[in-house]
Design a protein that fits this description.
Length: 860
C-alpha cells in the first residue's frame, strides 16, 4: 500500500499519495496560482508560503516533509488581510510585473503575525530571500509597512483610490492590475490550464560547439504517454530570429551547435513526469568541437565560423565633423579602454507559452514584449500568412528586453500543430539563464577631448560587442551604443566605430538601456578624468557641456523644447557638492521611440460596448505599467471615470499593431495614439450630450506616426528620434565604501503617474547598482557557470536610500500630454556614477564591471 501524506492547506485537510515538491502540489493539484514558480531551486522566493507561521519556499519543501503542517497561501488569507495588502501595495506603487508579489505578501504576512509593527529594517530582513527585479524593493517595503498599519487599525483603506477617483494624467493612480497580481488571480502563461493540454520540452545541447552525429528518439517514442518527438525535419523553415533569421529552431543531424542550450529536438508528452523521463531516453551523439570563446578568437584569421557568412555579425560607423583634427587640437585628451560584462535579465517569470489549434491556424498565449513580432517570427518559420497565427499576451512577469526574441512560443506552436492539442512549453530557470539573449559584453576604447575650459571638442571611439551565438537585436543595440556614446552634450566632432561579433557564448540582445549602459559607462568615466585635468568638478564639466533646448546634439539633432538635462543637474547639485569626496555623478540621455527612419507607429482602436469604452492596442505591458498609463490618458481625454474605461490587452487578432515594448516607446507612441482615438470619441460623446450609451457599438481607430531620419541621413540636422529623456544620478558612499544614497533626477516630460515613475526609477537604479557592483555572468569555455542564486542580484537588505526626482518643464512635446519614456534611462547613469564615487574616494579608476575592490567585491 502506498504511503499517504496529509496536511492542512488554507484551512482544509488535504491528503496525497505523491511525494513531490509542495510548489508543484499546490499549483498542479490544488490550482493555487498565487504560488509562483520562478526558479524551482529555492533562490527567488516567488513560491513563498507560510508553513506553521513561518515564511517558507514551497519548492524546497515536499509533500512528504509537509505532513502534519499548517500551510497558508495568499488564497487562504482572511478578507481583511487580502484587502489590506491589495490597498497597501496599490497605493504605494509596490506592484510592477507582479510575479514576485504573492511571495512578498506571504513573507510580509509571516512577519506581521509575529511583529504587528515591524521596522523598515525588520521588513528588509523578512523579504531578503525574495527577489524583485522590477521595483528596487523600496515600495514593497513601504507596502508591507502600510499593510501592517492597516491591520493594526492605525491606517484606513480609502476605497476611492482603487475605484479610480484620481485617474487623470498626473495623478498618483492605483494601477489597474494590482488586485489580480497581489491576490494571484491574474493569469500568467504558466497558470493557463486547458482541456487536453499536454507538455513539450526541448532537449538542448550541453556543448557550445559540437556536431550532431545522430539523434535516436526510438526509445522515447515507444514510451506510453509520449506523443511526439520533433526534429528539424518537422519545421517548414528551420530558422527564427527577431530581425535576422539566423537562429535554428532545431540543430539538424549533421549540423553544428552554436551555444549551450541550442535545441536539438523536442519531446511532447501527456504530462510533465512522462516528459521528464522520456527526455532521458533520447540519445544524441555529439562530436565536441573547439568553441569560439571571445571577440578576439572570433576575429582571428582561420577562426571557426559560427555562421557561414562569417563571424562579424553587425557593424556601424557613426561620424560627424572631424574628430581627428578636433582631438589633435584639444587642450586635454583622455583615452581609456573599458570592459563591461554580459548581464542576465533575471525577470522573475521564466519563459512559458501555450499554443493550440485555432480556426484555420494556431493561437499562442505568450509572455513577450510584442505579439506582432512573435507572430511574424512564427509565420516565417511556418511559411504561413501571419493572420493564421494569433498571439495573445497573458500577464508578463518582467522582460527588460529579454523577452523580445521568441524562446518557447514557436516550439509550442510546432508541437500543437503536430499533436493537434494544446501544448505548454516552459523553460526551467537554468534553461532561461543559459540561452536567452543577455546584455552584450563590450570592450571599447574611448578618446574624449576638451578645451581649457572643459568644453568638449571631439570623441573617437571603437566599440566591440560579443553578440554570442545569434544576432538577436545586435544591429540596433550596437547602433544605440554608438549613437549614445556621445552623451547628452553639445559638441560636434565624433567618429564612432562599432562591431558586433558572433562567438559560441550565449546570445546577446536587448536589455534595458539597449547598448547605452555600456557606452555611457565609458564616456562618463572619461569625463571625470577630463574634469580633473581642467581643474573643475565633475558636476561643473557636465553643466558646462549639457545640451539645452535649441542647441545641437552630437548627432546633429536640435534639442527640442522639452529638454531638461540642466534641470536634472541642478536638482542634484547641492547634494553632490556636499559629498564630493565620496560621491559620483553621471548624466545620460535615452531615446524614447525607435526612431532612425523606421516606421515606428502607435495604433489604437476603441469599441463602445456595454456602456464602456474598450481600448484595443497590441502594446505589451511587461510590468512597467503602460496599461494604467493608457487608462489615465483615456480618462483625461474623455473626462470619463475609470469604471467606464477598459484596456483590453495585447492580442494580434483583436488589437492593432502598436509595436514592441522596447525603446521606452509605449507611453509616448502608443499613449499618443490612445489620446488621438479618444479625441475622436470625445467629439461624438460631446455631440451626444455626454451620453455614452448613444455611441454603443461604434468603433474608432487612430494611428500616430511622427517620422524621423535614418542614421547618416544627408540633412543638416537629422531628427534621429522624436524624443529623448535625460537624467543625472548622484551616488554617495558611506565610510566603509558602501552605497549609502542614490539621487536620481529625471526628465521624462510630463509625469503621467508619479508613483509609477518613481517605481521605474527606483527599480532602474537598483538594476544599475547590480550591474556596477554585484552581478556576474561567469562563463567557462562558453558555458554559463551561474545559477539564479549566484547571479549576484541585489537583495532587499542591500539597498541604499534611493531618491527619485522628476523634473517637469513648462514646455513639453505635443504628444501624449508631453510624456516621454522612463523605462530604460533609469538604469543608465548609475554605474558610471558609482565609478565616479569610488574614484573620488580612492582615486582608483575602475574600468570594468562589476567593479573590483569595492565594499561588495573586496580584493582578495
Ligand atoms: Fe517584483 Fe516584477 S514586481 S519582480
Amino acid at each position: 500500500m502506498s504511503e499517504s501524506y496529509s496536511f492542512t492547506v488554507n484551512g482544509v485537510l488535504r491528503t496525497t499519495q505523491e511525494d513531490k515538491p509542495l510548489l508543484r502540489y499546490l499549483r498542479e493539484d490544488l490550482h493555487l496560482t498565487s504560488v509562483k514558480d520562478g526558479c524551482s531551486e529555492g533562490a527567488c522566493g516567488t513560491c513563498t508560503i507560510v508553513v506553521d507561521g513561518k515564511a517558507v519556499r514551497s519548492c524546497i519543501l515536499t509533500t512528504k516533509k509537509a505532513v502534519g503542517k499548517t500551510i497558508l497561501t495568499v488564497e487562504g488569507l482572511s478578507y481583511d488581510e487580502q484587502e489590506a495588502f491589495v490597498y497597501a501595495f496599490g497605493s504605494v506603487g509596490a506592484v510592477q510585473c507582479g510575479f514576485c508579489i504573492p511571495g512578498m505578501v506571504m513573507a510580509g504576512k509571516a512577519l506581521i503575525d509575529l511583529n504587528p509593527n515591524p521596522s523598515e529594517g525588520e521588513i528588509k530582513k523578512a523579504i531578503r530571500g525574495n527577489v524583485c527585479r522590477c521595483t528596487g524593493y523600496k515600495k514593497i517595503i513601504e507596502g508591507i509597512s502600510l499593510a501592517a498599519a492597516i491591520l493594526r487599525g492605525d491606517e484606513k483603506i480609502d476605497p476611492a483610490l482603487e475605484g479610480g477617483d484620481r485617474y487623470q494624467v498626473g495623478d498618483r493612480a492605483f494601477r489597474t492590475d494590482v488586485r489580480e497580481k497581489v491576490l494571484g488571480t491574474g493569469e500568467y502563461c504558466d497558470d493557463v490550464e486547458m482541456e487536453g493540454m499536454v507538455h513539450g520540452s526541448a532537449i538542448r545541447s550541453q556543448y557550445p560547439r559540437a556536431r550532431i552525429l545522430n539523434i535516436d528518439a526510438s526509445e522515447a517514442l515507444a514510451m506510453p504517454g509520449v506523443l511526439a518527438v520533433l526534429t528539424a525535419d518537422d519545421v517548414p523553415h528551420n530558422k527564427v530570429g527577431h530581425l535576422q533569421q539566423d537562429w535554428d529552431v532545431f540543430i539538424a543531424k549533421g549540423a553544428i551547435t552554436r551555444c549551450v542550450g541550442d535545441a536539438i529536438c523536442m519531446v511532447v508528452a501527456e504530462n510533465e513526469d512522462i516528459l521528464r523521463d522520456a527526455k532521458k531516453l533520447v540519445k544524441i551523439d555529439y562530436e565536441p568541437l573547439e568553441p569560439v570563446r571571445t571577440i578576439q578568437e572570433a576575429m582571428a584569421e582561420n577562426a571557426p565560423l559560427v555562421h557561414s557568412k562569417g563571424n562579424l555579425c553587425q557593424q556601424r560607423h557613426v561620424t560627424r565633423g572631424d574628430a581627428k583634427t578636433a582631438l589633435a587640437n584639444s587642450k586635454y585628451v583622455v583615452t581609456q579602454r573599458y570592459q563591461t560584462p554580459f548581464t542576465e535579465h533575471a525577470f522573475l517569470e521564466p519563459e512559458c507559452a501555450v499554443a493550440f489549434p485555432y480556426k484555420d491556424g494556431v493561437k499562442v498565449y505568450t509572455s513577450d514584449q510584442g505579439v506582432y513580432d512573435t507572430r511574424k517570427e512564427i509565420s516565417i518559420m511556418l511559411g504561413w500568412e501571419p493572420e493564421r497565427i494569433v498571439v495573445e499576451n497573458k500577464l508578463v512577469g518582467g522582460g527588460f528586453g529579454g523577452k523580445e526574441d521568441v524562446s518557447v512560443q514557436h516550439l509550442a506552436v510546432l508541437a500543437a500543430l503536430k499533436v493537434n492539442r494544446p501544448v505548454k512549453v516552459k523553460l526551467t530557470r537554468q534553461e532561461s539563464i543559459n540561452f536567452h539573449p543577455k546584455r552584450h559584453y563590450m570592450e571599447g576604447t574611448f578618446t574624449l577631448g576638451c578645451d581649457e575650459n572643459g568644453i568638449f571638442t571631439g570623441l573617437d571611439c571603437e566599440i566591440y560587442f560579443d553578440t554570442g551565438a545569434y544576432a538577436s537585436l545586435c544591429g540596433p543595440v550596437l547602433e544605440r551604443a554608438c549613437t549614445h556614446s556621445v552623451g547628452p552634450y553639445c559638441y560636434q566632432n565624433t567618429d564612432i566605430r562599432g562591431f558586433g561579433y558572433y562567438t559560441n557564448n550565449p546570445p546577446a540582445g536587448a536589455f534595458r538601456g539597449f547598448g547605452v549602459c555600456q557606452s555611457e559607462f565609458a564616456l562618463e568615466s572619461n569625463i571625470n578624468l577630463l574634469a580633473e585635468k581642467v581643474g573643475i568638478s565633475p558636476w561643473e564639466i557636465r553643466y558646462r557641456n549639457a545640451i539645452e533646448p535649441g542647441k545641437v546634439l552630437p548627432n546633429g539633432q536640435i534639442a527640442d523644447c522639452s529638454t531638461a538635462l540642466k534641470e536634472t543637474l541642478l536638482a542634484v547639485k547641492d547634494v553632490y557638492e556636499a559629498n564630493m569626496d565620496h560621491a559620483g555623478i553621471a548624466c545620460a540621455m535615452k531615446n524614447s521611440g525607435v526612431g532612425v527612419g523606421l516606421p515606428d507607429k502607435g495604433r489604437a482602436k476603441v469599441i463602445i460596448r456595454d456602456g464602456k469604452v474598450e481600448l484595443y492596442s497590441a502594446a505589451s505591458d511587461i510590468g512597467q505599467g503602460c496599461f494604467t498609463v493608457f487608462v489615465q490618458v483615456m480618462a483625461q481625454t474623455l473626462g470619463l471615470p475609470k469604471e467606464k474605461l477598459k484596456c483590453m490587452g495585447a492580442n494580434s487578432e483583436l488589437a492593432p499593431d502598436s509595436g514592441t515594448t522596447s525603446g521606452s516607446r509605449q507611453t509616448l507612441i502608443t499613449g499618443e495614439a490612445v489620446r488621438m482615438v479618444c479625441e475622436d470619441v470625445k467629439k461624438d460623446l460631446d455631440a451626444a450630450g455626454g451620453d455614452l450609451t448613444q455611441l454603443e457599438g461604434k468603433e474608432y481607430f487612430a494611428e500616430f506616426f511622427d517620422p524621423t531620419d535614418k542614421l547618416g541621413a544627408d540633412v543638416p540636422n537629422p531628427k534621429s528620434h522624436i524624443a529623448y529623456g535625460f537624467a543625472t544620478h548622484v551616488v554617495i558612499l558611506d565610510d566603509e565604501g558602501k552605497v549609502k544614497e542614490v539621487w536620481a533626477a529625471h526628465d521624462s516630460g510630463k509625469v503621467v503617474n508619479p508613483i509609477s515613475i518613481q517605481g521605474q526609477i527606483e527599480g532602474g537604479v537598483l538594476m544599475g547598482l547590480g550591474y556596477a557592483l554585484t552581478e556576474k555572468f561567469t562563463l567557462k569555455d562558453c558555458v554559463p557557470q551561474v545559477k539564479f542564486g549566484t547571479l549576484g542580484l541585489m537583495r532587499a537588505d542591500q539597498i541604499p536610500d534611493i531618491h527619485a526626482i522628476y523634473v517637469e518643464k513648462e514646455e513639453l512635446l505635443p504628444f501624449a500630454y508631453g510624456a516621454k519614456g522612463i523605462g530604460e534611462i533609469a538604469t543608465i547613469p548609475t554605474a558610471p556614477a558609482v565609478q565616479g564615487a569610488y574614484y573620488a574616494r580612492d582615486h582608483i579608476l575602475r574600468t570594468s564591471l562589476p567593479m573590483e575592490d569595492t565594499f561588495y567585491n573586496k580584493k582578495k
